[in-house]
Amino acid sequence: MHCPYCRHEDSRVVDSRSLEDGSAIRRRRQCQACGKRFTTMETTALTVVKRSGVAEPFDRSKVINGVRKACQGRPVSSDDLAVLAQEVEEAVRASGNAEVDAHEVGLAILGPLRRLDQVAYLRFASVYRDFESLSDFEDAIAELRAQEGEAPGRPTVQPRLFSR
User: Fold this and answer.
1) Percent share of the chain, pLDDT over 70
2) Which helix (H) or strand (E) segment is 105 a member of?
3) Residue 156's Cα: distance from chain center in Å?
4) What pLDDT score does 22 carry?
5) What's the rounded Cα separation, in Å, for the pair 43 and 25?
6) What is the DSSP string of 49-73?
7) Is 129 helix (H, G, I), strand (E, B) or coil?
């Protein structure tokens, strides 16, 4: 580690602390030559391998942009998308692998997006899972209903009876 003040190569770690979410380690260092202190942040590199075989660093903004398209016209805020991207990154990092397939990132998006907005989930899943027919949508809707405890084919809103 080079000192940012004098460019000396040797420094001593004075204090180490993990960030609250455990994503990085903050180290307080002191230069052996000039005695000045500075802080470094150490994070693990997370690489996404695309279908083409190209590897690139994980980028939360790409998750947000991909999900934002599915959320167009839905009551989903930018803060909601930022939280979703953080959940996705935490899930991918929890796998313990430094390299993950893009497919795994997509799978990690589906769960939080389903909880956030079901219509946006269906839009994203239709592209991600490559829906080809109406039956694919029907199956996905039936799956959502089953998770909510609804009986398939039952209306979600009870009809009102009007009397004269």
Assistant:
1) 88
2) helix 102-116
3) 30
4) 66
5) 7
6) E-TTS-EEE--HHHHHHHHHHHTTT
7) coil
The size of the chain, in residues, is 164
Give strand pairing partners of 157. Answer: none
Using CA of residue 106, residue 111, residue 115, residue 120, what is the dihedral sign? Answer: positive
Contacts (Cβ under 8 Å, ≥6 apart) of 147: 114
Q: For 97, which DSSP code?
A: -
Tell me the pairing of strands 37-43 and 99-101: unpaired
Query: Among residues 116, 123, 118, 106, which one has the least CA distance to residue 143?
Result: 118
The owner of tokens 């930018």 is: 78
pLDDT in tens, 26-52: 999 999 999 999 999 988 788 999 989
Q: Which residue has the tokens 């180490």?
A: 16
